[in-house]
């Protein structure tokens, strides 16, 4: 299932963050790349959901059933938020910008939000 595969990709990126001891104050290139990886994984999820609901795209499957519509929208929003936050943090941390710490904290918070959102898919096999 798409959500399960993407969840594991986002989780792998976050575990890499922890393995490298990438704390928000860290500006090492490796940590910035891990942030970028989180962003790419989240972007892939958001794009897959968007394409799945957009007529004319290769991934089109139609609108979700009514009971899943809100969950799908919330998941897409959380994935987009993480993608944007992680991409911003990856860039600012790679450049050792003054906003690296606050941007990294925002990315980790967005990761937590997406993780919580993905947990809501458990009853549906996610």
What's the number of helices? 4
Helical/strand content category: mainly alpha
Number of strand elements: 0
Helix content, binned percent: over 70%
**Major beta sheet summary:** none
N- and C-termini, Cα separation: 7 Å
Structure overview:
This protein is mainly alpha-helical. Helix content is 73%, strand content 0%. It contains four helices and no strands. The chain has helices at residues 2-19, 29-53, 66-94, 100-119.
Protein topology:
Layout: H1 2-19, H2 29-53, H3 66-94, H4 100-119
Helix pairs in contact: 1-2, 2-3, 3-4
Keyphrases for this structure?
about 130 residues, mainly alpha, elongated
What is this entry, summarized?
With 126 residues, the protein is mainly alpha-helical. The protein is built from four helices and no strands. It is elongated, with a radius of gyration of 15 Å.
């Amino acid at each position: 299932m798409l959500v399960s595969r993407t969840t594991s990709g986002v989780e792998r990126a976050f575990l890499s963050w922890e393995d490298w001891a990438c704390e928000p104050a860290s500006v090492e290139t490796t940590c910035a790349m891990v942030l970028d990886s989180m962003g790419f994984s989240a972007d892939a999820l958001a794009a897959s959901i968007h394409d799945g609901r957009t007529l004319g795209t290769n991934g089109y499957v139609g609108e979700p059933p009514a009971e899943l519509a809100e969950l799908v929208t919330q998941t897409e929003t959380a994935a987009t938020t993480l993608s944007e936050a992680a991409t911003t943090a990856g860039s600012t941390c790679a450049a050792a910008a003054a906003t690296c710490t606050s941007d990294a904290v925002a990315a980790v918070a967005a990761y937590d939000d997406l993780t919580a959102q993905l947990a809501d898919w458990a009853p549906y096999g996610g």
